[in-house]
Amino acid sequence: MSLINILKKKNRTALFTTPSHDGKFCIFHKFYQWYKADISEIDALNPEKGLEEAEKKASQIYGTKYTKFLTNGSTSGIISAILASSPKKILIWENAHPCHKNGAELSNAEIIEYKLPLDNELGVYKAITVSEVKSLVEKHHPDTLLITSPTYEGFVAKVDEIADFCHKSNITLIVDEAHGALYPFSNDLPISAVKYADFTVQSLHKTAGGINPTALLHSNKIDPTKALSKINTTSPSYPMLATIEANIKFLNSSRGHKYIRELLKNIKSLGVEQLNDDPTKILLKGGFKLSKKLFEQYHIEDERTNDKTTMLLCGIGTDKKKLERLKKVLNNLRS
Ligand SMILES: Cc1ncc(COP(=O)(O)O)c(C=O)c1O
């Protein structure tokens, strides 16, 4: 079947996956005329100036020195953050997203891959702790440290304390916060690294209502524009960049804050014990067997599963109706 026909097909499975917008949550009506908005750097409209202003406004919202809009995912943000750091010796997690190693290799730095213990009860890795960071630094003396927080399954590091330690030790801290793009917009969600780390990268498309593969690179150190230009196209998609501007405006609005409050309330009403730090990543004990059952019997697709736990991803776009459908299924499974 052609890709266009696959994309036109009706899908009846409830998706607890990325992107969380679920094809329904649309805050970008004006940009539906994609072709019309698809312009280059024409003098008649000067979209570069508009982008510059939108990014400046975003950095004020996030409280960062620089915030850059990305249309090639957190992948491009992490690689650029590494290149911008010009590391000589970089510490990366051995089980991190592949872009960590790719970026480190491109930078020509000496790479040390660190291990983190697997939580045997849940079958997942938890976030790195402050004492793990301290002992790694003591052992390897890096100038750059790359950590993932939250982890895929929603475990969050003490990024403020880690940043404090790194800065006192002259280490550049890069935080992969791909799964934490909602954190800056709710006090009921875990801590975000955006104000603390030297570089923080967030995928808007995973949980924050953005379209694939919109993301953000925040910097409190140097302007990452030059590093981004090493891997970015010179023909950016202005309609896609405009969705990022609209996305941030929504997240920062009272409507956006209310939406997140409602989302968290609806997740809480499922009555599921929270096993992680981030309630938007519903972590269920059950693993592959449960995942198969949810998919085949109840037409519910999870984001990720292992032999012990199954993670259902929620975010902007996960409406009450979908959560009620999940609640019924979970009640059924419990009885
Ligand atoms: C922890 C983590 N970091 C980075 C990425 C890359 O993000 P993107 O798909 O926005 O490029 C992913 C993607 O799944 C991820 O899970």
Fourth-level CATH superfamily of the largest domain: Type I PLP-dependent aspartate aminotransferase-like (Major domain)
Largest sheet, strands/sense/barrel = 7 strands, mixed
Terminal residue distance:
41 Å
**What's the SSE pattern?**
HEHHEHEHEEEHEHEEHEHHHEHEEEH
Total discrete domains: 2
Low-confidence stretches: none
Oligomer: single chain
Number of strands: 14
Task: Enter the CATH topology name of the largest domain.
Answer: Aspartate Aminotransferase, domain 2
Query: What's the tally of helices?
Result: 13
Shape: globular
Structural class: alpha/beta
How do the strands of the widest beta sheet line up side by side? Answer: 2-10-9-8-7-3-4
Helicity range: 40-55%
